[in-house]
């Protein structure tokens, strides 16, 4: 058991270090910000401890709260840096969708020659279609896919969004919170049924005539993070 814990800790520490390095590339002040948050939090709690004549207890509590505050700030800055690196890259929306719990995601259910793409997610809130690319072209692509989905699951809510920072568009960093706020209207078994019915439509990759044998060099299958 001890060996298992020892083997897990270095992996987790390595992951934190890698996340920090990645974040620092996009946010050069991350180290100073985290340190400042820790020092200020500890200083405030310690000062309160002296005021109430319990500096030792306050110091212990201050250390715990300082570590917690540093972890929260680090997590938010790291998330912001990750979204910044994904912004504008093909498949970014699919990568975010695949990290939202409770949803079955099918990337690239349809795509046009300009590589504008629509991804599909199925959950207890119904079906969500997310388009990314040129907004003017994506609107038509998204509308056509919505009509196709509605014919198959006419009794299920179908939501559609275009990823972007323009008016009426859904910013990449708000995909997760938007999906989580959608009203739940389907039971677990119904969600499974809807997902199975939509699988019959296939997706872009399953409908493509992919040749048998080894995959050519340089060709990558789309996948989320």
List keywords for this structure.
disordered N terminus, four-stranded mixed β-sheet, single chain, elongated, alpha+beta, 8 helices, disordered C terminus
Report the order of strands and helices. Answer: HHHHEEEHEHHH
- Total beta-strand segments: 4
Radius of gyration computed on alpha carbons: 23 Å
What composes the largest sheet? Answer: 4 strands, mixed
Distance between the termini: 30 Å
**Count of discrete structural domains:** 2
> Which overall shape is indicated by the principal axes computed on the Cα atoms?
elongated
**What fraction, in percent, of the residue positions are helical?**
55-70%
* Beta fraction: 5-15%
Structural class: alpha+beta
Number of alpha- plus pi-helical segments:
8
Widest sheet, order of strands: 1-2-3-4
Average pLDDT confidence is 80
Q: Spans of 5+ residues with little confidence (pLDDT < 50)?
A: 1-8, 207-225
Strand and helix layout:
Layout: H1 2-26, H2 30-51, H3 55-86, H4 92-97, E1 104-111, E2 117-123, E3 126-132, H5 135-152, E4 158-162, H6 175-181, H7 188-199, H8 204-207
Helix pairs in contact: 1-3, 2-3
């Amino acid at each position: 058991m001890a060996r298992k814990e020892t083997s897990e800790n270095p992996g987790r520490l390595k992951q934190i270090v890698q996340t920090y390095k990645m974040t620092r590339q996009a946010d050069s002040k991350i180290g100073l910000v985290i340190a400042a948050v820790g020092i200020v939090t500890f200083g405030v709690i310690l000062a309160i401890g002296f005021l109430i004549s319990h500096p030792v207890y306050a110091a212990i509590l201050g250390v715990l709260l300082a570590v917690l505050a540093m972890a929260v700030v680090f997590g938010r800055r790291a998330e912001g840096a990750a979204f910044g690196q994904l912004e504008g890259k093909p498949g970014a929306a699919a990568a975010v969708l695949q990290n939202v719990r409770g949803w079955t995601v099918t990337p690239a259910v349809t795509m046009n020659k300009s590589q504008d793409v629509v991804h599909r997610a199925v959950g207890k809130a119904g079906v969500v279609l997310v388009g990314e690319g040129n907004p003017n072209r994506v609107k038509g692509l998204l509308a056509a896919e919505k009509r196709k989905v509605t014919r198959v699951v006419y009794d299920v809510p179908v939501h559609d969004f275009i990823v972007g920072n323009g008016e009426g568009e859904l910013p990449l960093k708000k995909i997760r919170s938007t999906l989580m706020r959608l009203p739940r209207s389907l039971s677990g078994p119904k969600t499974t049924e809807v997902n199975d019915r939509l699988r019959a439509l296939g997706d872009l990759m399953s409908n493509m005539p992919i040749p048998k044998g080894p995959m050519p060099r340089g060709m990558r299958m789309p996948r989320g993070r």
